[in-house]
């Protein structure tokens, strides 16, 4: 008896919120996005990146612009008022971001947008994603995703916490080759997993200053 085609499944999780630049005026929270899929729509079957809320806002705006009449799911955290602690707000936002991505990756129209794939499966900054999609970058969309995946910056166990530093400063886990040195796409080892490939100076323009931490502001 012939078996039918394998059902395509995509798991996406938003996890591990972390404060970057803690104690600084331009501190912010970013989130780990883990994706595992057998869908042919994705270039890499497993990926792991870190993104901040401001990048989610940009992604939704671009998806809506390119989707025409197809509705795009809403993002959390629109309200300027929140009763509760900062930790509660961050957790509520994390849950909302995961629900947003879960809905997005199930929509075939939204899945056709190259920006979504670069957002989920590379650590390119927003300006770099735009340049890549518009053909102004040094790589195609597929090449950028494969380069990130092959560098093993995109490899991670779903339940992994922060990667450990091995003797000699090599990273174990998210940004390390299995049994080998760091991948060529990785930055120098840091005490914790920061934004690989992120260029905040390019993302934050004078007209849009970096948001302070400590309140439920939309740009966080």
UniProtKB/TrEMBL annotation:
GO CC list: endosome
Family the entry assigns: Belongs to the sorting nexin family.
PANTHER family: PX DOMAIN-CONTAINING PROTEIN, SORTING NEXIN-11
Residues covered by the PX domain: 9-126
SMART domains: PX
Lineage: Eukaryota, Metazoa, Chordata, Craniata, Vertebrata
Membrane association type: Peripheral membrane protein
Keyword Iron: no
GO biological process, alphabetically ordered: intracellular protein transport; vesicle organization
One Pfam family here: PX
Keywords carried by this UniProt record: Cytoplasm, Endosome, Lipid-binding, Membrane, Protein transport, Transport
Stretches the record annotates as Disordered: 188-220
Cellular localisation: Cytoplasm; Endomembrane system; Endosome
GO MF annotation terms: phosphatidylinositol phosphate binding
Protein name per UniProt: Sorting nexin-11
